[in-house]
Amino acid sequence: MRNLVLLLAIGAGVGVSNVYYIQPILGLVQHGFSVPANLIGWAPTMAQIGYATGMLLFAPLGDMLNRRSVILVKGIFLVLVLIAAFFSPNFTTLLLTNAGIGLLSSVGQDFIPVAAHLAPEDRRGRVVGTVMTGLLTGILLSRTLAGLVAEHYGWRAIYAVAAGLQGLVILLVWRLLPPLPASTNGRYADLMASLLKLWLKHASLRRSVFIQALLAISLGAFWSTLALVLAAPPFHQGPGTAGAYGIAGVAGALAAPLLGRFVDRAGPVPTIRLGCLLVILAFSGMWIFANSMVSLAIGAVVFDLGVMAGIVSHQTIVNTLDPAARSRLNGILITGAMFGVALGAEVGNVAWAYVGWAGICAVGLVASCGALLISSLSTDAFCACRGPDYF
């Protein structure tokens, strides 16, 4: 079981990392294709839109088809799109391939329901936490890897590396992952329609999505503006330093198995509230010690840990609600979180432009306080919809 969990963690990390390779190489892409500054930002935006769309469109497939087959097919097409990105002759083609990369990189999330399905009930939180460590480590280190590869071999090289890594994962899944039969019968259209039914049925799903989206806003606000903050006074640091902060954030991701154990023992709701408090503490400290790079590093670790506490707990909750709909439930949760990241990035950039670092910290504090408030409300105060409540 240990080797299988390791495979799931690697698969999740490699799959989702493809979405983020574009971010640190934007300058090289802009120079190579002579793209205007007001258009270059569409490259990562297309990847994020594709990812959120993939989570919604492909979520039912993991419940209606063999999950192993779904992972293999999506992985193969992802390799082909990565190769197409490598050979992009112009910026328009790169935009389209990044949308495809985002769409198919949802394969990284397919490993989460597999982990929940294979894990014993008393260890589900721990196993999901371990796989989430792989996923978040992939996100955090993807920027560092892309920057290093592009600096020495050009921006196209990272797509060749990504295709090779994804191909290796496909081979390992084909050799090691057992068949995982469909958990439900039904047509694709019916399962897509069931997403709304699941949303209305489960109060815990609704609350989990709102809380995680708010925590994700703080995440997006910080990481989307960090390079700008470090480049400005009093730091005057380059993109390499921003990449190093991604490594600091890995410390929070590596704590996911410990958080999973805490979820198994204390329950997901106390862990969620602890995570909200950690995010509040982190942004408060970074606001007070605004001129300290050490404060930024410590804050990145602490608030990443808080966001991780939320996602591990919420995935434990949604994977318990309906075993036959785990892929769809996870898809709804992650789609909400991705919209939170996108919103946080936009609000964070506006806050930086008009207010500065204090504005970014304020965004993080307001979002995390809102998450804590929702986690503390009674079911009746939260909504009047029907359905069992986990909180």
From TrEMBL:
<dbReference type="Pfam" id="PF07690">
    <property type="entry name" value="MFS_1"/>
</dbReference>
<feature type="transmembrane region" description="Helical">
    <location>
        <begin position="272"/>
        <end position="290"/>
    </location>
</feature>
<dbReference type="InterPro" id="IPR036259">
    <property type="entry name" value="MFS_trans_sf"/>
</dbReference>
<feature type="transmembrane region" description="Helical">
    <location>
        <begin position="296"/>
        <end position="317"/>
    </location>
</feature>
<protein>
    <submittedName>
        <fullName>Putative transporter</fullName>
    </submittedName>
</protein>
<feature type="transmembrane region" description="Helical">
    <location>
        <begin position="242"/>
        <end position="260"/>
    </location>
</feature>
<feature type="domain" description="Major facilitator superfamily (MFS) profile">
    <location>
        <begin position="4"/>
        <end position="382"/>
    </location>
</feature>
<feature type="transmembrane region" description="Helical">
    <location>
        <begin position="71"/>
        <end position="88"/>
    </location>
</feature>
<keyword id="KW-0812">Transmembrane</keyword>
<dbReference type="InterPro" id="IPR020846">
    <property type="entry name" value="MFS_dom"/>
</dbReference>
<feature type="transmembrane region" description="Helical">
    <location>
        <begin position="39"/>
        <end position="59"/>
    </location>
</feature>
<feature type="transmembrane region" description="Helical">
    <location>
        <begin position="329"/>
        <end position="345"/>
    </location>
</feature>
<feature type="transmembrane region" description="Helical">
    <location>
        <begin position="94"/>
        <end position="115"/>
    </location>
</feature>
<dbReference type="GO" id="GO:0022857">
    <property type="term" value="F:transmembrane transporter activity"/>
</dbReference>
<keyword id="KW-0472">Membrane</keyword>
<feature type="transmembrane region" description="Helical">
    <location>
        <begin position="157"/>
        <end position="177"/>
    </location>
</feature>
<feature type="transmembrane region" description="Helical">
    <location>
        <begin position="209"/>
        <end position="230"/>
    </location>
</feature>
<feature type="transmembrane region" description="Helical">
    <location>
        <begin position="351"/>
        <end position="374"/>
    </location>
</feature>
<keyword id="KW-1133">Transmembrane helix</keyword>
<dbReference type="InterPro" id="IPR011701">
    <property type="entry name" value="MFS"/>
</dbReference>
<feature type="transmembrane region" description="Helical">
    <location>
        <begin position="127"/>
        <end position="145"/>
    </location>
</feature>
